[in-house]
Design goal:
Blueprint: H1 11-15, H2 33-40, E1 46-52, H3 64-70, E2 75-81, H4 87-96, H5 100-103, H6 120-126, E3 130-135, E4 152-156, E5 162-168, E6 171-178, H7 179-192, E7 201-206, H8 244-247, H9 253-284, E8 290-296, H10 315-318, E9 322-325, E10 335-342, H11 346-354, E11 376-380, E12 391-396, E13 400-410, E14 416-429, H12 446-452, H13 454-465
Parallel strand pairs: 1-7, 1-8, 2-10, 3-4, 3-7
Antiparallel strand pairs: 2-9, 4-5, 5-6, 8-9, 11-12, 12-13, 13-14
Protein name: Sulfatase
Pfam family, one: Sulfatase
InterPro entries: Alkaline_phosphatase_core_sf (IPR017850), Sulfatase_N (IPR000917), TAT_signal (IPR006311)
Length: 467
């Protein structure tokens, strides 16, 4: 039984015992059922999304305060994923609840392809929420351009650790200091306004950490971190069954150790910020009815298969920390949820919690109900033709992963171009081979492929890419 099947779990369980009130329409956007009752009662939750940059799993050491709030007293999703392991596409999926092939931001150069009408901030703003954006937005967004549907923002661009330049509610200027701290302080001020402004609010909080160059705050620059001896995929002894770009990868365990050390040190400041945000909510009496998400926009390889980046269809790249808390609706108490979830589920969950019915299609599903997917589409596009890794798409379940690479890339407008020819494939048994060491399609016969169920997986992947 999934934790969300327990009695009383989720928004519907919480609202079942509430006094009935008349359903209402929220500022022109349809709301129905229990959520509408919640809206009419004036008890719509605040929404807080904390998004780190390039944070993989296995980084818990650096975030004990975050775990104390959102895991020990929230819900930990053990199978958290991103649908595209790259910054701008992933963030666009969070905002829209859509796959990158639908929202159009396939790479880091085309943020203006995102239809702002489809975003969760548009829905919330139109429904009377006070909206704020603090930190990194979308790669290649012009710093002088104001982000749509936000009332208050401090947009960091270019994204740096120290003494950054910010679009501060329409004025571009420099602000001295460590960017995680600057972003935290502005977030606290936004939340503090709730003491006098009683509208529900939405805050998107996005520090640079732990993205490269992984520069820690001065007070954490030399903090010792636990030793790490890698995992079986760091490095993989024999990569002859992998695509050529992985066979040619040259990064080592020492490279992975350096990246890990620096990432952990930068995350210590994020952890401090999360604690201060928690304390501010508690002081205002808003901790119970704030729906909080914490996740990374993608993972990162620490030398896995010789690779030190994201962008690849391997677990360290596509899996991320994924924590949720909403005590008023029963998302608390240290629950563990083993469903396959992804960044595309955040917008549908927020809208469900706020009682808003979207007027544009979404690929994700609300996490407040009992929906359980049996697989997830993950996709990634290369910006440069002929470069490695090739554009790829993958179908991932709890037990297996099938990946295809294509002769495709994105052009200057972020559109997909190329022949689409299939150039490589991988298949992994994630139960018996969790580190993805053995590509079972390497030198496999047609009969062996049929026994693995590859034809059905290939058909499923093609259907998902077209959905």
């Amino acid at each position: 039984m999934s934790s969300n099947d327990q009695p009383g779990f989720g928004r519907r369980g919480f609202l079942a015992g509430a006094a009935a009130v008349t359903a209402a329409t929220v500022t022109g956007i349809a709301a129905a059922g229990p959520a509408a009752a919640q809206s009419a009662a004036g008890s719509r939750p605040n929404i807080l999304v904390i998004l780190t940059d390039d944070q993989p799993n296995a980084t818990e050491w650096a975030t004990p305060k975050t775990l104390g709030w959102l895991v020990d007293n929230g819900v930990k999703f053990t199978h958290g994923h991103v649908s595209t392991p790259l910054c701008a596409p992933s963030r666009s999926s969070i905002f829209s609840g859509r796959y990158a092939h639908n929202h159009g931001v396939r790479d880091n150069s085309s943020p203006y392809n995102l239809d702002q009408h489809t975003t969760v901030q548009r829905y919330l703003h139109d429904a009377g929420y006070r909206t704020g954006l603090f930190g990194k937005y979308l790669n290649a967004w012009r710093s002088a351009d104001n982000p749509a549907h936000f009332d208050d923002w401090l947009l960091l661009d270019p994204v740096v650790y120290n003494n950054g330049t910010y679009n501060d509610n329409g004025t571009v200027h420099g602000i001295a200091g460590y960017s995680t701290t600057v972003i935290k302080n502005r977030t606290l001020a936004f939340i503090d306004a709730a003491a006098t402004d009683h509208r529900p609010w939405f805050a998107f909080v996005a520090p640079k950490a732990p993205h490269g160059p992984n520069t820690p705050d001065a007070k954490y620059a030399n903090t010792p971190v636990p030793a790490w001896n890698g995992r079986p995929s760091v490095p993989e002894a024999d990569r002859s069954d992998k695509p050529a770009y992985i066979q040619n990868a040259t990064h080592t365990l020492d490279d992975g150790r350096t990246i890990r050390q620096n990432q952990l040190r930068t995350l210590l400041s994020v952890d401090d910020a999360v604690q201060e945000i928690h304390d501010k909510l508690a002081a205002l009496g808003q901790l119970e009815n704030t729906l909080v998400f914490y996740l990374g926009d993608n993972g990162y390889c620490w030398g896995d298969h010789g690779w030190t980046a994201k962008s690849v269809p391997y677990r360290p790249s596509i899996e991320v920390p994924f924590y949720v808390s909403w005590p008023a609706a029963g998302l608390s108490g240290g629950k563990v949820d083993n469903r396959i979830v992804a960044n595309i589920d955040i917008a549908p969950t927020i809208l469900d919690a706020a009682g808003i019915t979207p007027d544009t299609p979404q690929n994700g599903h609300s996490l407040l109900g009992s929906n359980r997917r049996d697989h997830l589409l993950v996709e990634w596009w290369h910006r440069n033709p002929g470069s490695d890794p090739h554009t790829w798409a993958s179908t991932v379940s709890a037990s297996r992963q099938y990946t295809e690479y294509y002769a495709l890339h994105t052009d200057s407008t972020g559109q997909e171009v190329g022949t689409g020819e299939l150039v490589a494939r991988e298949y992994y048994d994630l139960v018996n081979d969790p580190y993805q060491l053995t590509n079972l399609l390497y030198q496999a016969t047609p009969a062996q492929e049929a026994a693995l169920g590859i034809p059905a997986l290939a058909a499923q992947l093609a259907a998902d890419r077209a959905s």
